[in-house]
Amino acid sequence: MTGIVEIEELLKSMSPEIRGGEYAFCTVEGELADYVHLNPLATYIEAEGLTLILDVEAAEKANIPFEGKYKQITLTVHSSLEAVGLTAAVSAKLTAYNISANVVAAYYHDHIFVQSDKADAALAALQEFAE
């Protein structure tokens, strides 16, 4: 199944949804295998350490420090990994509302992590693309 490439079609047809739960971005030492039991939503290996996106409760139970709580907004349109401009358009829209955007692209969808207290405002801003 091929994703949508055209930016205008992507923006008009996406239907952003806030997913349940709150997430924390954590950085830890060690190997991913040491943290699989925490069921991270996503991981990334950086030079400075392993980044985990964890459910806030899992991070707290494991005593892993984090700085903020985030909600996940999924852009439910199947965007192509070769689409140009989606991240820039989403980021610019949220910037206009003073909302930071932490974007994670997966195979089918893009996921935007925003501060929990700004999630409703971010969703409303992203829904403006369909208007």
UniProtKB/TrEMBL annotation:
Please list the residue ranges annotated as the CASTOR ACT domain: 71-128
Which InterPro entries does the entry mention?
A: ACT-like_dom_sf (IPR045865), CASTOR_ACT_dom (IPR027795), DUF2241 (IPR018717)
Any Pfam family from its record, for instance, is: ACT_7
Question: In this protein, which residues make up the domain named DUF2241?
Answer: 2-70
Recorded hits in PANTHER family, A to Z, give:
BLR5128 PROTEIN
Return the protein name: Uncharacterized protein
Which source organism? Cocleimonas flava
Question: What phylogenetic lineage does the species belong to?
Answer: Bacteria, Pseudomonadati, Pseudomonadota, Gammaproteobacteria, Thiotrichales
